[in-house]
Specification:
With 199 residues, the protein is mainly alpha-helical. The chain has 2 domains: 3-111, 434 Repressor (Amino-terminal Domain); 115-193, no CATH class. The chain is built from 10 helices and 2 strands, in the order ααααααααβααβ. The chain is flat.
Length: 199
């Protein structure tokens, strides 16, 4: 969604009744959608999930229906534990809800379980270390080891854009055939890059 759409949505939130309805609909639709996607990813029927959670199939049906689902935090915790994903329940400013709504992506709905996420992070870390060994990266910030606070969002985004451009401009050759991943800047922090010297 464009910036103009985001501003238009935020303007609508000037109405208190719209704000209340917006929060309610976002909560109901997001939970229903994620519950259904996570269940289907495990190739389970509603009945299968109901048995696993010691509840009724009707309870699962209502959970996956944004018009009826009103899950308790206890139910959400059970789902999170079963699917091995995190759960975030907190109050937030409306601007954050608008940003989340207008930038919704598949990965924010179909969230990875812990083992999948850990394997992905390990793969990225391995590729980064291989890039350092190959001379494609000259420095890894202390943030990689978690010794310093992560960077402000605007700085992270700028760094990611710079890395993408660097990856696209890598020359061909034995030492540069390995394409660098888009680095998780929250984990790895600043990475200063250089092209390998010509032989």
């Amino acid at each position: 969604m464009s910036l103009q759409s985001s501003e238009s949505l935020f303007e609508k939130l000037s109405d208190p009744k719209y704000r209340e309805a917006f929060v309610s609909s976002r909560l109901a639709q997001t939970i229903a959608m994620q519950a259904r996607v996570l269940r289907q990813r495990k190739e389970m029927s509603q009945k299968d999930l109901a048995i696993a959670l010691h509840t009724s199939q009707n309870a699962i049906y209502r959970l996956e229906n944004p018009k009826y689902g009103r899950p308790s935090i206890s139910t959400l915790r059970k789902l999170a534990t079963f699917f091995d994903v995190g759960l975030v329940v907190r109050f937030a400013p409306f601007g954050e809800l608008v940003r989340w709504t207008t930038s919704l992506s598949e990965s924010s709905i179909n969230v990875a379980d812990f083992e999948t996420e850990r394997a992905k992070r390990a793969t990225i870390e391995q590729k980064v270390r291989m890039a350092v060994a190959a001379g494609l990266l000259t420095h890894i910030d202390k943030n990689m080891a978690g010794n310093e606070p992560s960077q402000p969002r605007h700085k992270k985004n700028r760094n990611i854009r710079q890395r993408k451009a660097m990856i696209q401009n890598q020359p061909s050759g034995v030492s540069s055939q390995m394409k660098l991943p888009v680095i998780d800047s929250a984990l790895y922090g600043d990475i200063n890059c250089k092209k390998p010297e010509a032989a």
